[in-house]
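Q: What changes when iron/sulfur cluster is included in the input?
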Amino acid sequence: MPSAALTQARGVLTVRLAAGVTLRSEDFGAVAYVGERDDFFALDLAYAAVVRRAAAGPGAGLGAIVDGEDADRARLLASLGVCATSPATPERPHLGRSLVGDFAALPTLSRPLVVNCFSTAHCPLSCGYCHADDLMTPFRARDERWGGAAASARWDGVAATARTAGLVPAMVGVVTGGDPIVVPDRAIWLMERLAARKRVVLDTSGVGDIGPLLPALRRHQAHVRVSLDSADARLNDRVRPANPRYLPRGTSGFAGAHVTLRRLRDAGVPSSVQTVVGRHNQHLDDLRALRDHLVAVGVRHWVLHVAIPAGKAGRQPALLPDADALDRLRALVRECVDGGSPIDVRVTGTHRSPNAVLLVDTVGRLCVERRDGAGKEMIWSPDEAPDPHEVVRRYHRHVDLAGHASRYLNGTLEALPQPVG
Ligand code: SF4
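A: The predicted holo structure follows.
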């Protein structure tokens, strides 16, 4: 490897794949998943070639030597956390940009990026807009008959969830529910299975003890998303109230989320905050206040989901944001770009394409939201022969492919300056 002085003098540098990055080849180049940020980047052919050289390298950890335009590409990739260079390139927030290189439009993906896997139907909160409510309620009643949430840890339905998820060639498996924090044994079991073939993300309200999950999260370099809707604790706890079946009335979801974020940081587990944008927090001032609060408490990755008329919110349209919610979010991200906010921002607009998300429920059924948003549709049953090619065919037939790419590649922000490079 050349010395730092030599590489600087000649504009040459070494580049290697950053830790915790997973690559997948696509016709347009490649997709890189950066676990630390929980972000996907679509790379055109030129950038993908640099990353492949970085990943191949001449030996463990040494990377490849690049110069000229490839050195510029390597620096940009390093700034996004995809690669690491020597001399070092500082990382910077991507601020809503996910396409790297030359793209005329959001690319088409050959296979899914993410599959969401329910580890439990139980949750300590009772959010008015809960998207997953229709997939949880029937199983909660069943678990009650079997002795409550704790009993579901012994139930082997999670094995069916893991088997179905194993047939979906997604890069990332999200352990979700319900809230995995309620039944940690079951979440750990699912995480172990998913990690054999996928990167792992865990969704949680943060209201509970994250401690039992920490060793498995660290072992699998998993990323944790913690939900928070407002910098105002009272407003947050009004829309995300404690469920009295699981928690003492008045338990603060706001406080729980912050404790969990601190514990994750102390344990070295990467985390982000996710926010559902509804009628309660759609105003720019509210979102600015939340952004500033997150930055102040050390959060560096933020995902905003526009509430969709599905699950509980399908029955309570008054909870949904105004029609111009996306315009406000674009304005917010524009402000973050202009102000150089030290936080990644990703925005999803699944209300425009309800059937963009793959879900595996607690009995292993692969589901998508129906195109008309009127409930979930099972697109593959765990009783069928386990044929991964058929599962991919169903993905292509039933999932809004552009919506899926948009959700994970920040397509909702198309009006902003994409791509980078
Ligand atoms: S924390 Fe998530 S799963 Fe639980 S009620 Fe709220 S939206 Fe639903």
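Observations recorded in class: The pocket of iron/sulfur cluster is lined by residues 123, 125-127, 130, 132, 177-179, 205, 227, 240 (CB under 6 Å).
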